[in-house]
Each structure stands twice: as C-alpha cells, then as structure tokens.
Amino acid sequence: MTKKGDFLSLADCSARQLWAWLELARDLKAEWKAGGNKPLLKGKTLGMIFQKPSLRTRVSFEMGMLHLGGNALYLSPNEIGLGGRESVADVARVLARYMDGIMARVFAHDHVVELARHARVPVINGLSDLTHPCQGLTDLFTIWEKLGRLSGVKLAYVGDGNNVVNSLLFGGSKLGMHISVGTPVGYEAKPFVLQQAHKFAAESGGTIVTTHDPHAAVADADVIYTDVWTSMGQETEKAQRLLVFPPFQINAQLIASGKATAIVMHCLPAHRGEEITDEVADGPQSVLFDQAENRMHAQKAILADLLAD
Ligand code: CP
Ligand code: NVA
User: Fold this and answer.
1) pLDDT in tens, 211-254
2) How far is the CA of 289 from the centre of ligand 1 (A)?
3) To the nearest 10°, the Cα dihedral for 49, 10, 184, 266?
4) Is the pTM above the cut of 0.90?
5) Which structural domains are found in the chain, ordered by start?
6) Cα angle: 191, vertex 197, 203; to 5 degrees
7) How far is ligand 2, taken at its centre, from the CA of residue 1, in Å?
C-alpha cells in the first residue's frame, strides 16, 4: 500500500488541503464536545519520536489517537538515538514495520525529511528547527474559530524569527492573511522562508511585511502572536538573547497598538515575564488555552486523513 502523504511543512500544502483539514478539525471538535468521536482509526497505531521535551504535542497526539480508536506509542529522547545509535533511514524502515504512522519532534529538519523518505507510512513533523506545522495548522484553526475568517486577517508576530513564525508565514500566506513580523536585528525569519511566503501571498491575495519596530508590527492587528525568545536547542544563546529581546515583549502597552478586539496568541510553553507578561497572558484578549486545546482537534484531522484506510 502506498502512503497517502506526509505532513512536514505547511509550505507543501495547497489551500484546498488546508481548508479540508480545518473543516474536518471543526467537525471532529464539535463531535467530541457532543459526546465522543467515531472510531475512524480503530486499531491504528502512531509511533511518536521525541528528541526534545513536550507537553502539548505528546499529550494532544496521544489523546487524539485514543479518541479516534487507535493507540500512540511514546519514544523518549533516550530510547531511539535518532541518527546516533541508528541511522535515520533505518529507524524509519523499522518503525514503519510496526506502526501505521510516525510523528517526530527533531532538532534538524532534514531528519523529518529523511524519515519521510524512508518510511512507508505517513510521517508528521511534530516540530523541527525549521517549522512547527501542527502548531501552524492549529493556529489557523483557532484564528478561524475566533474571528470567523482567515483571508484578510492581519496577524502580527513579534519576537524571534523561529520555527513557529515560519509555519505561520507558510500557512497564513497560503490562505490570504496579512502577516507582519517584528523581530530584533539579526533574528529575522530566514530569507528563503520570507521569499516563499511572498510567493504564496501573491497567489492568495495576502501580504507579508517585516520590521524591527514591534509597535509598527502590531499596528491595527487582529491577531498578536509571540513565542519564546530562546527555542529548544539554542540554550547557550539565552543570556545574549535576553539582552536583545525585551523591547519585543508582548505587554499591555504593546497590545494597545493593535485593534481593541485583537486576540493574543502564544504556542506555549511561555516564559512569563520575558516574551509575554502575566497581565496579557491571563487577560481578556488571550486565547492561549483554547489554542492549546485546539492542537488536539487540528491533529485529529491530520491523523484521520493520513492514517485512515
Ligand atoms: N506548543 C508546543 O508544541 O508545545 P510542546 O513543546 O509542549 O509540545
Ligand atoms: N520555538 C519553540 C516552540 C516550542 C513549542 C521551540 O522550538 O522551542
């Protein structure tokens, strides 16, 4: 049997595919809230490789599989030795003999690409140094749920030009959003990511702008988004980053530059008091915990599509 597909980056997905998953996530969420899901993945199994820690990704995938009648197996950073104890290709070949799908959280994006190339079952990227597509799809779902539309929505991302903003750029630009990215000098999103996002935006009617002024980024925004200043794997840079990033903190003064109705988002985990204040994270504009819940609903849509017979 040939696999239906992999999910490594939102850059690989068509707008049609994204909307199909968003609509399925909405339906699965409603069905679950109404009492439970149909066992669309009865007897199916998902292997979950983690090279880094996780709360949301691990638990939301595991619960998602359970809701759909399947099972998930957690493989900790100490167990597999991806690319060390055993080559990435061999891990992919072996796991695919036991499992119906693989989800992997890795350091090097090339490792999820390599897993997908050698696994005969679907591979889902649960975060790499380049992208966090499950988070990105969830964020689109949350914005759609809260604001009722995606096309024409202005999303301001303020902070580090990292994996999370890359996924927002790829996904948002495919669906006609206006994205402004405010970062310190030297911490911009990578030029090739911006170039691709510009191309997708030109096709969808969206726009992409970048700035080093956080207030300019947030001006008139419908969505204000931030993430940690130091991502997993960058810990040695933490002291230097703490010197550079404070003007990019999402606080009451900064969000006042956005629309009064703007929602505030963060993929979590948050370093409260650094990139976001308690006042904003726990304030009336915050949708942080609906966003965290939605990881489960968005991923169930991906799983139900890719792993079903
Ligand atoms: N947002 C997110 O991916 O959280 P975890 O690192 O806890 O999985
Ligand atoms: N940018 C963060 C996201 C964590 C979910 C990291 O990579 O650590």
Assistant:
1) 999 999 999 999 999 999 999 999 999 999 999 999 999 999 99
2) 12
3) -70
4) yes
5) 10-132+295-307 (3.40.50.1370), 135-291 (3.40.50.1370)
6) 145
7) 34
Q: Quick one: CA dihedral 136, 139, 145, 148, positive or negative?
A: negative
Tell me how far apart the alpha carbons of residues 8 and 36 are, in angstroms, rounded to a whole number.
Answer: 28
| CA gap 181, 225 in Å, rounded | 10
Residue type, 253: Q
CB 223 within 8 A of CB 262: yes
For residue 133, the ligand closest to its alpha carbon is 1
Catalytic residues: 105, 132, 135, 227, 267, 295
206's tokens: 């969206």
Residue type for position 298: A
- Residue 206 DSSP SS3: coil
Token pair of 165 as six digits:
């903003």
> CA torsion 144→150→153→155, rounded to 10°?
70
Of 175, 296, 126, 291, which Cα lies nearest the Cα of 224?
291
State the distance from the centre of ligand 1 to the C-alpha of 201, rounded, in angstroms. Answer: 27
